[in-house]
Each structure stands twice: as C-alpha cells, then as structure tokens.
Design a protein that fits this description.
The chain is α/β, with parallel strands linked by helices. It has helices at 5-16, 32-43, 57-65, 70-81, 108-112, 114-120, 135-138, 157-163, 169-179, 187-200, 204-213, 216-237, 242-256, 274-286, 319-326, 335-342, 350-364, 415-423, and strands at residues 21-25, 46-51, 97-102, 124-129, 147-151, 290-296, 307-316, 370-374, 384-391, 401-406, 432-435, 440-442, 445-449. Strands 7-6-8-9-10-11-13-12 form an eight-stranded mixed β-sheet. A five-stranded parallel β-sheet has the order 2-3-4-1-5, with helices on both faces. It is globular, with a radius of gyration of 23 Å.
C-alpha cells in the first residue's frame, strides 16, 4: 500500500547523500518493514536488512569486534547475508547500497556504531525501532549525532482512501478547504469514507484486510492481535514498570468516555501522583501506543513553555485499536456492533472516538498535542476547556494559536470557545470547530468536517 513516508525517505537519500543516517521511530505493526524493503529494492542497487530482533548473535558481535576495521565488518556482513555491497565512488553522490538496522534497540552497540559508519561514507544507513528512548536501550552508549529522526504513524485518511482505490477525493477535499467552500454533494461520501476509517483505523494490516474483504469481523481479529502484541510487549519490555504501564493502558477507554477527558490517576490508585507514573506514560508514548496531550497554562505562542505536564489527556495512537480496546467484554466485537457504529446507531459516547481520531490526525500532521483547561472557582468567564491548541507554521508577533473544539452530534454549545476568544483575542489565530457537518464560516469561526483535520 502506498505510504507518504516513502517521499520522506527519497528526500533524505537525495538531499543528505549519506551525511546522516535516517532513524525511523515507529509503533509495532505500523508497516515500516514493508515500506523500507520496497524503498531499498527500488532506489538502491543492493541492500542488506539486519533485523536485530531475530538475527544470529554472531552478527551482533561483528559490531564489537570490527568497528576499528570496517573493511572486515562489511566483508562479514556481505558473507553472512550473501549480498554484495557497492560503495559510493565519491563524497556528494548518492549511495549505491543501503544497510538497514531493523529493530536497532536490540543492539545498542550497532546504533552507537552509526557515528563511524556515516563518517566512513561508503553506504547509506536506515535505523528503525520502537522504544528507542527507553533507558536500557541507550545505556552505556554515546548516541550518534549523525542521525536524522522521523516518526512513522498509522495510515492517515488520505492513505486509507488510496487503499480503498479512491485517489480523487482528498484533492477535492483539499481544494474546498483552501477556498473555505462546502463539499456539497460530496460531503456525505467523504463522511462515509471517514466513518470506515474511524472504525478500521490506520494499522496497515487492518486496512489491507478491510480493503480485501470488507469484513469487520476479520478486521477486528487483526486489531485484537495487535492489542495482544502490545500487552505482550508491556510484560516483556516495560523494565520494572509493567504494573503501572498495564494499568494506564487498560484504563484509557474508561478515561476517554468521561466528559472531561483528563486522565485521573485516582482511577489507578488512591493518592497517586504523576511523579510516580511519569515513566509509565513515557514508556507508552515512546512505544507510540498512545498520544499524550498536555495542558498549556495559556493559549499563547510557545505552548511548550506553558506546558503543565502533571495534567494530561491520554489518547490511543490509533482509533481503530481504541474501538477494539473499548469493547472487550467478550473478546470480539461482532459485525452488528460495527454496523451500528458505522451508521451512528450505537449507544456509546461517540465523542471519545471522534476526539481520539482528531488527536491522531493532528499528531500525524506534525502537531504536538496541547489543550487548555482553566477550572477557576472565582471567575466564571475564566472557566473553560478547549480540546486542542495548534500553532501556526509561521510565527508572528500576534495571533499565533488556533483553538480547536471537537463536537459530535447535532446539538452542542461553544461556551468555552467564546470565552477563549473574548479573553485571549490577541493570542489567537483562526478558531475551528470540528464536527460531522459540512464546512461553513460563521462569525469568524471555521466549522470543518472532521475529514479536513489533516489539513490544519
């Protein structure tokens, strides 16, 4: 299936020409092995993929024995993998061969060797892995500065449309967004696609299964296999945080069902404090299983400077996985439940699914996730809750932050958004309401159909 990250790989190869290795940080089952193998086959004369999660320990030992003798290192790799490597002829040209360090977190020594391998400049290098930042995966090594890191996310809405065989819908959506014009006749079709995306999610195996079968039962089995894999990873790799990480993971659907979706640690343990759970949240975030959204104390430029990390919302990295995670009573969500969800007939808090999906799409578009919450007990005009805050791509002296309210259903109020606009007018750029209706502009507020979220 076509993925946008392929273009980023191509730009790295053409522009950096071996000056840095490419580090791709991913969640499990995100499709990175497929896309890297495809890239290597199409863009290089030859390549070697070293999967450190299953390779013979002898190969790992190569990096301990031969870093001071790279000729011998490369010869050993060629012999072991039965693949001839062709070095680049001169500095500044594109490489002929690629070496991939897959699941590099299992061999910290190989990651540390990147500094010397890039300096040698014979080949290009791509590293992939999950849990890249966990302490035990970087213990005792000097992290190379010769890495260019990018993140790989679940398939976005446009990639889902490509998988469904529709290459025309997203360009039209983009055109109407740019013109601030409604979709008209095509809004319903776009929403039908989006509800399918909401339910199936963006994990490539689930999307491929749906594309081939249109069978929600088979899709649900795929998603539950992925959730089981995540639970297994927590048990094996959470590094003495297993109990806390598991408690957070299992509590996510219950927390998101609440009107205020801030994660309440009291649900895990009486008198729990963020300092006791911060490493557990970090582990899940580093594994790309969750997207953390932090409270900003003021909706002004420099959201990270105003970040208040003890208050957060915790979204699943993929909304399709959240659905299967939420309906876990009998171990399988049947087709009838999926069909009701597809047509908005299921009696659940659909707001949690829509908001999770918006968080997923904003994150994949490059935004860090922030919200604004003020629970003032003295001034009602200060009391407000804004779902998301995003910064403009170009910073100006004023009006840099767009507040976003996410609404599901037909009847909703904009009390918090109006308070925010009144109090912080000088800080704010275009305000958005994301809903399931068509695009409109009213009193300076842009109402966007949810499928336009990736364009923000």
């Amino acid at each position: 299936m076509k993925r946008k990250i392929y273009q980023k790989l191509l730009e790295w190869k053409q522009e950096r020409k071996g000056d840095v290795a490419l580090l791709i940080e991913v969640a499990r089952r995100i499709g990175k092995s497929y896309i890297i193998e495809t890239f290597a086959q199409k863009e290089y004369d030859s390549h070697i993929v070293i999967d450190f999660s299953k390779v013979n320990p002898q190969v790992m030992e190569f990096f301990n024995l031969y870093l001071d003798d790279l000729d011998t290192l490369f010869l050993n790799l060629e012999l072991y993998f039965k693949q001839k490597l062709t070095p680049r002829k001169s500095h500044g040209e594109e490489a002929h061969s690629l070496i991939v360090f897959d699941e590099v977190q299992f061999c910290p020594r190989a990651r540390a060797s990147i500094k010397h391998l890039v300096a040698d400049h014979r080949y290009d290098y791509i590293e992939t892995g999950s849990l890249i930042s966990i302490r035990k995966n970087v213990k005792g090594i000097l992290l190379p500065s010769e890495e260019h890191a990018i993140e790989m996310f679940p398939m976005d809405f446009e990639e889902f449309l490509w998988a469904m065989g529709d290459k025309m819908m997203m360009p039209y959506i983009n055109s109407q967004f740019e013109k601030r014009q409604p979709m008209g006749t095509f809004h319903r079709r776009a929403m039908d696609y989006f509800r399918q995306y909401l339910i199936v999610g963006g994990m490539p195996q689930a999307v491929a299964t749906y594309s081939e079968t249109r069978n929600f039962d088979k899709v649900d089995e795929v998603k539950r296999d992925i959730l089981a894999l995540y639970r297994n990873d927590i048990r094996h790799y959470a590094d003495n945080q297993e109990t806390k990480v598991t408690a957070i993971f299992e509590e996510i659907p219950g927390q998101l069902q609440k009107h205020e979706k801030k994660f309440r640690l009291s649900a895990l343990q009486d008198e729990a404090r963020m300092r006791d759970y911060s490493q557990a949240f970090f582990w899940l975030s580093d594994a790309k299983i969750i997207n953390c959204c932090y409270n900003a104390t003021e909706p002004s430029i420099g959201l990270k400077l105003n970040e208040e990390r003890t208050t957060l919302k915790c979204y699943m990295g993929d909304t399709g996985l959240l659905i299967s995670h939420s309906f876990d009573e009998r171990g399988l969500m049947n087709s009838d439940l999926y069909r009701k969800l597809m047509f908005g007939k299921l009696e659940v808090n659909e707001g949690m699914l829509v908001e999770n999906s918006v968080a997923q799409m904003l994150r994949a578009s490059g935004h860090k996730l922030y919200f604004y919450s003020n629970s003032s007990r003295t001034k009602t005009e200060d009391r407000m809750e804004i779902d998301f805050l995003i910064a403009k791509s170009i910073t100006t002296s004023r009006h840099n932050i767009s507040p976003i309210e996410v609404k599901s259903g037909s009847n909703y109020s904009l009390t918090s958004l109006k308070k925010c606009l009144a109090k912080y007018a000088n800080h704010l750029s275009t305000p958005y309401v994301i809903h399931d209706k068509d695009l409109k502009v009213d009193e300076g507020v842009v109402y966007l159909p949810i499928y336009m979220t990736p364009l923000l």
